[in-house]
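We were asked to recover a plausible sequence for a given structure. The inputs and outputs are reproduced exactly as logged, with field labels preserved.

PROBLEM: sequence recovery
POSITIONS: 125
GIVEN STRUCTURE:
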């Protein structure tokens, strides 16, 4: 992931979470686009307010070091259980980082259904 991130976006990133269960790592240019979309929403939007509160609470701008490491804010490290074995997933325009046990529990609690397959098929996948 490091080479793709640095080649396509550079080393600047925004590290955050929405629900505190995982860490989201956005290239700063992608995060800037999200902020522009948020700014276009009405300031009275409660969804916008809750989203911004959470990503601000968990969030911090950072920079990948020479070994592609990043500092995860302490509150997020604790809340998302970022100790021990973690999993890193590419997710189109950002990375998701999960505590392995938490992710395996998520998979067990939220199985992939026939309806999910149908929805993807409707989208041509």
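RECOVERED SEQUENCE:
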């Amino acid at each position: 992931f490091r080479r793709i991130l640095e080649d396509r976006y550079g080393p600047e990133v925004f590290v955050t979470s929405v629900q505190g269960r995982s860490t989201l790592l956005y290239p700063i240019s992608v995060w800037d686009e999200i902020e522009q979309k948020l700014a276009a929403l009405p300031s009275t939007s409660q969804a916008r307010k809750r989203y911004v509160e959470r990503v601000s609470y968990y969030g911090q701008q950072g920079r990948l070091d020479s070994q592609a490491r990043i500092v995860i804010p302490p509150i997020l490290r604790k809340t998302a259980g970022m100790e021990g074995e973690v999993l890193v997933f590419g997710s189109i325009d950002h990375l998701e980082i999960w505590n392995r046990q938490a992710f395996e529990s998520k998979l067990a609690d939220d199985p992939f259904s026939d309806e999910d397959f149908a929805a993807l098929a409707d989208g041509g996948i």
